[in-house]
């Protein structure tokens, strides 16, 4: 039997399928190595890090925006609460003003209204307001509607009864004004007038009653008294001088 030239006697060529299998295996290894290189390549790592940083910056920006929004809403809520408190305070003040105006209207109606009771000169009210430990500011309201259109004129003085060192004592107008020849306070009105002034109480004196004396230019003097409790009702406590 004749052997082809170039071949060794007794050997045979490998089957074609083995060659194909080896080639496929080699290609698979090469593709896997290429994929692994793509994953582990420094450029891809930097790209992934950049992407992660961009995502972190985006998330931080959104977080900052949310925090700023929370701060803005908190401040807005605080402003709204403060505005509401101011509004409530203003409404309370308006209610007090309206109540005072209604009281004034009722007073005027009683004084000059068609059904008002006719009275001559009198002391309608007296209020004592503390200034310090010894000084007091008083406000008297004088009225008259008996002679409409007529002018009432005269002088007003106060006297205060109380106790001191366990003894009864009455302070006359000069004592209260700390002036020996203290003149009375003048008044002049048609229907009503408020006369104000200051008096001074000696240390240790406990007032009990206040008398208001009116000495009109014409006619007899008029005197009306008020308890100290009534005269100082609804006023602030005395504040000691610094």
TrEMBL record:
<feature type="coiled-coil region">
    <location>
        <begin position="49"/>
        <end position="104"/>
    </location>
</feature>
<dbReference type="InterPro" id="IPR046703">
    <property type="entry name" value="DUF6776"/>
</dbReference>
<keyword id="KW-0472">Membrane</keyword>
<dbReference type="Pfam" id="PF20567">
    <property type="entry name" value="DUF6776"/>
</dbReference>
<keyword id="KW-0175">Coiled coil</keyword>
<keyword id="KW-1133">Transmembrane helix</keyword>
<protein>
    <submittedName>
        <fullName>DUF6776 family protein</fullName>
    </submittedName>
</protein>
<keyword id="KW-0812">Transmembrane</keyword>
<feature type="transmembrane region" description="Helical">
    <location>
        <begin position="16"/>
        <end position="37"/>
    </location>
</feature>
